[in-house]
Design brief:
By secondary structure, the protein is mostly helical. It contains 6 helices and no strands. Helix 2 packs antiparallel against helix 3, helix 3 runs antiparallel to helix 4 and helix 5 packs antiparallel against helix 6.
């Protein structure tokens, strides 16, 4: 039977999955930003983030922001795939990036490893911050956040993936 308290995959795997799913999309952003298959891969990338949000330590409101990011970015990807106006889908995506920034910063600050904290804070601030100035800056200014989030996933897999697993639910005292 499925036990919701049990971890079925290591944190390392849960961090590497979005890294490998997002890497081709990041490359496409630099080579051919209008490539359609990137949106399909982006939807699966964002869905893989669900596993990471559930596993990284963060306060409940920050986890809610992470789940909100996934929902909005999946919505934006499906809107783009189905030919909804680019400006509309882009605005939804940027709204999701504000929530992504909240989750990335707060979950990074909970890490025991300074590289995860530093890269996570920079990534989250860049991603969320761009959402507020994106109408005045070209999309190319968002690209460094894509690279930084790949580095953040790799750091999570390297450092936090070496941490002993914490139980999903604390044992109750009798």
């Amino acid at each position: 039977m499925f036990d919701p308290r049990r971890h079925y995959a290591s944190l390392r795997l849960v961090a590497l999955l979005p890294l490998f799913l997002f890497l081709p999309a990041v490359i496409a952003f630099f080579v051919d930003p209008d490539v359609t298959w990137g949106e399909y891969l982006g939807v699966f990338f964002h869905l893989s983030i669900l596993f990471l949000v559930s596993r990284l330590p963060a306060v409940p409101w920050a986890k809610a922001a992470g789940y909100g990011w996934v929902a909005l970015d999946v919505l934006a990807g499906i809107m783009m795939i189905n030919g909804i106006e680019y400006e509309t889908a882009w605005a939804v995506r940027l709204g999701g990036h504000v929530l992504a920034g909240v989750w990335i910063v707060t979950s990074s600050l909970a890490s025991h490893f300074w590289p995860v904290r530093v890269v996570g804070v920079l990534t989250g601030v860049w991603l969320a911050g761009y959402s507020f100035v994106g109408t005045h800056l070209a999309e190319e200014f968002l690209r460094p956040a894509g690279i930084m989030i790949l580095v953040w996933f790799a750091l999570l897999a390297t450092f936090d993936g070496n941490q002993p697993e914490r139980p999903a639910v604390a044992a109750s005292v009798a």
